Amino acid sequence: MDYGKGKVIYMYVTHTFEPVCDEKSRILILGTFPSVKSRENAFYYGHPQNRFWKVLAALLDENIPSSIEEKKKMLLKHGIAIWDVISSCDIEGSSDSSIRNVTANDIAGLLAASRIEKIYGNGDKACRLYDKFCKEKTKKEIIRLPSTSPANAAFSMEKLLRSWQVVKESDTETEKK
Predict the structure, then answer these.
(1) Can you spell out the DSSP letters for 16-80?
(2) pLDDT of 100-119, one tens digit each?
(3) Exposed, middle or buried: residue 109 (CB in 10 Å: 0-12, 13-18, 19+)?
(4) In this structure, are strands 8-14 and 86-91 parallel, antiparallel, or unpaired?
(5) DSSP state, 98?
(6) Interval 21-40: pLDDT, tens
(7) Please, are residues 131 and 41 in contact by the beta-carbon 8 Å criterion?
(8) What is the mean pLDDT of residues 144-173?
(9) Please, what's the largest Cα pairwise distance for the chain?
(10) pTM tops 0.70
(11) CB 59 within 8 A of CB 164
């Protein structure tokens, strides 16, 4: 349902795709909510200028995946799960700052059914939403990483890679177990 509040038009949207996770997943990366492009593609980080897949591929010494299957394969090979904090919300386009009326995904349920040890947030908003809606149930801290969104122009690819290095270090730790 669309409704106007001044110049902003919000749309109620529900997350329509599942988390990527399996029995080997030890790391969870949480976003906020799929962008318009991601919703159109029915998969995470679908905007061509989002640097998520480039950053992970570089850190994990993999080729940049293009298909959904290649993306899932790369994540699961390295024990990485991905999902979003939000199950449904009112949002204007893809703007995280416009998110209202949040219903959170069952992150605690995912953690209980997996072997995930570390949780990373792709951007400040994902971390704040996790802290507000999920932390009490999960009893786990989230580690904030700078957003890979094209809206985060303050972070060059080089800066993102340095900041996201902790994911590679976590991947290496889990390989040893």
Answers:
(1) -SPPB--TT--EEEEESS--HHHHHHTSSS-STT--HHHHHHHHTT-PPP-SHHHHHHHHHHTTE
(2) 999 999 999 999 999 999 99
(3) exposed
(4) antiparallel
(5) G
(6) 999 999 999 999 999 999 99
(7) no
(8) 88
(9) 54
(10) yes
(11) yes
